[in-house]
Amino acid sequence: xxxxxxxxxxxxxxxxxxxxxxxxxxxxxxxxxxxxxxxxxxxxxxxxxxxxxxxxxxxxxxxxxxxxxxxxxxxxxxxxxxxxxxxxxxxxxxxxxxxxxxxxxxxxxxxxxxxxxxxxxxxxxxxxxxxxxxxxxxxxxxxxxxxxxxxxxxxxxxxxxxxxxxxxxxxxxxxxxxxxxxxxxxxxxxxxxxxxxxxxxxxxxxxxxxxxxxxxxxxxxxxxxxxxxxxxxxxxxxxxxxxxxxxxxxxxxxxxxxxxxxxxxxxxxxxxxxxxxxxxxxxxxxxxxxxxxxxxxxxxxxxxxxxxxxxxxxxxxxxxxxxxxxxxxxxxxxxxxxxxxxxxx
Amino acid sequence: xxxxxxxxxxxxxxxxxxxxxxxxxxxxxxxxxxxxxxxxxxxxxxxxxxxxxxxxxxxxxxxxxxxxxxxxxxxxxxxxxxxxxxxxxxxxxxxxxxxxxxxxxxxxxxxxx
Lengths: 345, 113
Known about the structure:
The complex is a heterodimer of chains A (345) and B (113). Chain A is mainly alpha-helical. Chain A folds into 2 domains: 51-189, Cytochrome Bc1 Complex, Chain D, domain 2 (Orthogonal Bundle), CATH 1.10.760; 195-328, Orthogonal Bundle (Cytochrome Bc1 Complex, Chain D, domain 2), CATH 1.10.760.10. Helix content of chain A is 32%, strand content 1%. Chain A has helices at residues 7-23, 29-32, 51-61, 74-77, 124-128, 130-133, 152-157, 160-169, 177-189, 197-202, 211-221, 289-297, 317-328, and strands spanning 240-241, 266-267. In chain A, strands 1-2 form a two-stranded antiparallel ribbon. In chain A, helix 3 (51-61) packs antiparallel against helix 8 (160-169), helix 3 (51-61) packs across helix 9 (177-189) and helix 12 (289-297) crosses helix 13 (317-328). The longest helix of chain A is centred in the first third of the chain and has 17 residues, at 7-23. The N and C termini of chain A lie far apart (80 Å). A 5-stranded mixed β-sheet of chain B has the order 3-2-1-5-8, with no helix packed on it. In chain B, strands 4-10-9-6-7 form a 5-stranded mixed β-sheet, with no helix packed on it. Chain B is of the alpha+beta class and 113 residues long. Chain B is elongated. Chain B contains 1 helix and 10 strands. The relative contact order of chain B is 0.21. The chains are: A mainly alpha (345), B alpha+beta (113). The A-B interface holds A 113-114, 119, 228-229, 237-241, 253, 257-262, 265, 307-309 and B 34, 61-63, 65, 67, 69, 76, 78-79, 81, 99, 101-105.
């Protein structure tokens, strides 16, 4: 006991403790736990994931026949080779039309309660059919032959390969709008992030994070206040904020909820695999993470109806680089995705 | 009106007003860990009486913005930080759906009887 409580060792203990706090970004072990992966992939009881459902969903996801032109699949914009996004500032839809918002990654969709940049879809199942039917996106008629186009249901029912796949995945439920949505949702729920250097560091593999990334984590939780919105395992509060982008034409979440603070507010995106999903922001305003950090450093550009979380940060050049290094540490090893074989008859 | 009756009417009105004031309660609903909480536990609905007040207090280290677009009561309390609170008096019977505009997972019903 004398040894433990000697002044010399007490002082050393204090210094070691302070060093640990600095190295861990001032987070306690309990706080770090908030970043841990949840135990299981969340899924609704009426559409539990099974291998056959995920397999069918994957076929549909990669099948361009889901679009009116038979030329655009979900994977055209949600490209697995590009972080399940498209690398474009804003998406390109039916007839090469440039759309108003960027393509969000589908990574970790299972962990989100609301979908689309304005959150208008309250489940993956409700979201799944939206882009297919949207005139600007895939321009497909799902259940009505409209003279020029054969409906998607008719196209799928004509193919034995799909008839069999639906029956195995959803016995007795048939090929319907509902089962298409359920299968697509099952596949999307299966797209989850792998362990990134940051995750391994939390689990004790301390060499996985550079000193710059660790300093960036301290800033992320402290001076830069990123964590106020980008929180938890998926680095999002699943909330809506106006972050001061110069985009007066898009009302964002306000179109769904007529509350003043939501004018120009959009959903907080995940930061998982963020190094792969440039350009950034709902309108693809920034090409690099450094530009994103500079945006927040300046406290945004447009100040009208700005989120109260957004303030000038006065970051040094090193601090900006450190934040970028931290965000890069949230990108894990990518498993190559194989294309499915689609039914020809 | 007979002065005596007038005096009685005023007295009756004052008694009723004081009675109502005395009966009206204030209920504290905290915003904590991105949920509505009553006495430390997550709450999805609370039943109160006509005339009662709900005090919404932010206990999270970030802003909340409580609102309702219900037919019963429409309000937007604006954004307020940790430690601050705002009150709403519910003066009619019915049900109000209350949300946080920033964090729509935060949702509860105020049932006014």
